[in-house]
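Input record, target 12 of the design panel.
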């Protein structure tokens, strides 16, 4: 079951909104991490929040409002989520609750608009497919990191076919770390399928250090897929 972390404040009715959103998500088969349910007496609050973000959730929902952007706990949670988006493929979906200046590190993410309380159910309907897609990416990244060689190669192929630019950092990281040449081939090709300058730069860097001829072929294939001239 997909599990979402809802990062929010307790100010100006936002906790009531988080509870309402959690109930709506649970009614549609999504599990939810809420601080009031997951942090118990005697626990270190910040450590428990970090654990919830990193290890227990597939999707991070950040409730955007002037209050949340001033909140230290929300800032810690957001920075932790952004860090682990790169390292583990944690997916982030901003939830716009009130008009505010969206932080620069979230501006590349499409938010779901919950500003109109009368359209709450409609907004939930828009959020659910995003959660499903994000959870799919998260599960593929977990497979890419923890699976056997065949599973890792399969995950790389699926991630390439999805062509989601937010998976570029994790694909590039795994290309430099994975021990299996076949997996590295498909990681290189996946980068090429996504394309763009970031993917091309990652492939060029990998080409400098890659000793295996089969993986070098994958890098060339990836560069061609990205529309970049190759040397072979």
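The sequence produced for target 12 reads:
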């Amino acid at each position: 079951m997909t599990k979402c972390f809802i990062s929010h404040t307790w100010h100006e009715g936002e906790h009531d909104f988080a509870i309402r959103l959690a109930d709506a998500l649970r009614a549609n088969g999504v599990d939810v991490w809420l601080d009031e349910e997951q942090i118990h007496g005697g626990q270190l609050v910040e450590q428990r929040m970090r654990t919830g973000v990193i290890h227990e959730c597939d999707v991070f929902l950040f409730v955007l409002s002037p209050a949340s952007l001033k909140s230290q706990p929300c800032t810690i949670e957001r920075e932790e989520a952004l860090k682990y988006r790169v390292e583990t493929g944690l997916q982030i979906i901003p939830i716009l609750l009130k008009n505010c200046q969206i932080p620069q590190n979230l501006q590349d993410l499409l938010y779901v608009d919950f500003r109109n309380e009368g359209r709450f159910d409609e907004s939930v309907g828009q959020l659910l497919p995003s959660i499903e897609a994000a959870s799919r990416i998260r599960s593929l990244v977990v497979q890419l990191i923890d699976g056997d060689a065949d599973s890792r190669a399969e995950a790389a192929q699926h991630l390439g076919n999805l062509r989601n630019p937010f998976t570029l950092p994790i694909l590039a990281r795994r290309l430099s770390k994975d021990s299996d040449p076949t997996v590295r081939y498909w990681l290189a090709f996946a980068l090429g399928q996504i394309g763009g300058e970031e993917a091309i730069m990652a492939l060029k860097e990998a080409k400098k250090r890659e000793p295996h001829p089969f993986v070098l072929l994958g890098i060339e294939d990836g560069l061609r897929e990205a529309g970049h001239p190759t040397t072979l």
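The chain has two domains: 3-139, 147-225.
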